[in-house]
Amino acid sequence: MALRIRTIDHAVVMAADMERSIKFYCDTLGGRPRYLQRFRDGGLPVLPIELGGAVMNLQYLDKPAYLVAERLESGTLDACFRWDGTIAEAVAHLKDAGIEIIEGPVPRWPADGVWGQSVYFRDPDGNLLEFLSTAEPMEPLFTE
Fold first, then answer.
1. What is the model's pTM?
2. Residues known to be catalytic
3. Which of 97, 99, 123, 143 is least surrounded by Cβ atoms within 10 Å, i.e. has the fewest?
């Protein structure tokens, strides 16, 4: 029986410095925080930040929510964001924000099978993030 998983809904970042992480995910990546004041007042253990159709949940590394991974460390997430513009626009955005590109642009295949290009970078906690663009589809580098 095939599972009916459609897409990734959210990912969790264990933030060593919450305000620095909020600034990065909102100002640099254009996210929109939900329930920010309630979170800051201690009414929520997790701060959801909307990014496109997904959510990054920020948690304090030193006081995590009740249900978390077995081992908690900052810098353990690897998340890919679909970028609707060209890869050149993604590179320019990261450079304008002063974000170092770790690798790329490099060819990658996304979940929908249309080959595109990715650039990799890190958030303030060292988590590996990726912008993947298929705005300029590529010929597959290999097939099954």
1. 0.83
2. 130
3. 143
